[in-house]
Write a structure and sequence with these properties.
The N and C termini lie far apart (about 60 Å). The radius of gyration is 23 Å and the shape is elongated. It is built from two helices and three strands. The chain has a three-stranded antiparallel β-sheet with strand order 1-2-3, with no helix packed on it. It has one domain. With about 80 residues, it is α+β, with helices and mostly antiparallel strands.
């Protein structure tokens, strides 16, 4: 992990197209602005984790889904 010290108004450049700028520092809260191409997804960590967890849950096979699929395969073989 790279650790940098920046003051309000200062920036960090990532690659050729992403700029992270410190907008404001108030006590222990820092406001950050991110300039990135539209095709680059930018999420807060808690949002990213929630989306990832929801995707894993949606992709998990349940016993009901497996039973239904087995029944469909059996029915397809008998026709």
């Amino acid at each position: 992990m790279l650790v940098l010290t920046r003051r309000a108004g200062e920036s960090v450049v990532i690659g050729d197209a992403i700029v992270v700028r410190v907008l404001e520092v108030r006590g222990d809260v820092v406001r950050v602005g991110i300039e990135a191409p539209r095709e680059v997804q930018v999420h807060r960590q808690e949002v990213y984790d929630a989306v990832r967890q929801a995707n894993v849950a949606a992709a998990a096979a349940t016993e009901d889904a497996i039973t239904a699929l087995q029944g469909a395969v059996r029915n397809n073989r008998s026709t």
